[in-house]
Amino acid sequence: MQIEVMRCIFPMVRVFTISRGSRSAAEVLTVHVQDGVHHGWGECVPYARYGESLSSVEQQIVGLPGDVTRAALQDLLPAGAARNAVDCALWDLECKRAGKRFWELAGYPTPAPVQTAYTLSLSTPEVMQAKAAENAYRPLLKIKLGTPDDMVRLEAVRAGAPNARLIVDANEGWTVEEYAELVPHLLRLGVELVEQPLPADADDALLDLPRPVPICADESCHDRTSLPDLVGKYDIVNIKLDKTGGLTEALGLRKAARVEGYDIFIGCMVGSSLAMAPAVLLAQGAEFVDLDGPLLLAKDREAALVYDDTGMHPPEAALWG
User: Is residue 300 within 8 Å of 292, Cβ to Cβ?
Assistant: First the structure.
């Protein structure tokens, strides 16, 4: 079997900003595995927050043996972007070899479209209000926050989309004091979820804070080994393929989190339809889904996912799985 890795750049519709910085394009790694007859594809988005770069992740992938299996891969690479792209490519290869769709191969029900959040980039209150109004028809809006001036942004978004369902993501940007000050207003404005309000290395403070609005672990939850540290702090876990290191571990994390009583949030980095495709299948039955990466791009893969009024549709075989 041959493993190839390629760098791809997908320009974004507009600059996308979170509390850590801005980007104008999604820089991804595409993995191609083939056995001479069948081909499998995967994509990952290296994330500097987790010590990853395009080069470091590429080196991890090219160092793998050509006969690697999905089972062996779980021990050869740690949870992260590199293992994700290869794991998903190997799943795709297995599907192509078997002539079956992923859900048939893995024994899951036929997937249905899922409703995804649409993310409003961090900006001035005026811009965020305008974007909220422009997208008020969408079923769920996700607001990027994480600054000392978030109250005015929250009010602006709610004014722009008075009837929309709202969730917020602070990206570790709040202090304990800012969180405590904002919580009553989150309730007043109908926010349904707060994602990672405090830094992952300081989230023990959540043990002593009220959680009237459910709190979702993102940077604090990577794979199943993260679960013991979440007890008493979080109500929901955000499962991202680039954090778990692929669909294999993500399925295990979803099952284990359910057993522990957590609700499920399926999230993503900003990537193309190839990165989202396995996550659409993972998102079946999840309480919250945020797989809007392709909607933020100016150009996507040729065999792109379909987004319409019924939701985000499962991938065609030409794309993945």
Answer: no
